[in-house]
User: Fold this.
Amino acid sequence: MKIASFNIENLFARHRDLLLGNDEESELLVQDFDALIYQEDKSNKDLTRMRKLWEVVGTNLAPKKSVDAFKEYEDHILSNIENLKGRPGIISIYNEMAKNPDLRPITFEDIGDKAKMILEVSADMLVLQEVESQMAMEEFNRYFLNGLYEHIYFTPTRDTLGRGMGLMLRQGV
Assistant:
């Protein structure tokens, strides 16, 4: 039997307090975002950088002009997310995140990197630390691990940022 344990640092969303550094660093990120938002021609690399910056600074730190300008960009991104179609569980997770202004979504690329690492290990028993919910684990298993694990368990902890522990077991374990 192969057992693996990962500090997954959240599957779909991370609390903004875990992303931000000091105030000076945060201000530099906001300035970087502002410079990109008003740039005339944006490359795909620029858009990716904006998305990553937005995950960190979000609406709580970005100046009003950035927030207004980003809404148009965000609508464009959200209207083109083909990989959410047919995934009501993931949409539910993102809808729940939207209710908490302190949460920042983790990119599908980063979620996929976590899944790749787990699939490469191919453990019979997988223990995950810092997981946000039972639903997040189930959706991660369904859409990113191809249903590899049959039994999924989540237990909350006393973590002030809402993270818990997860256990995933293959069939027959």
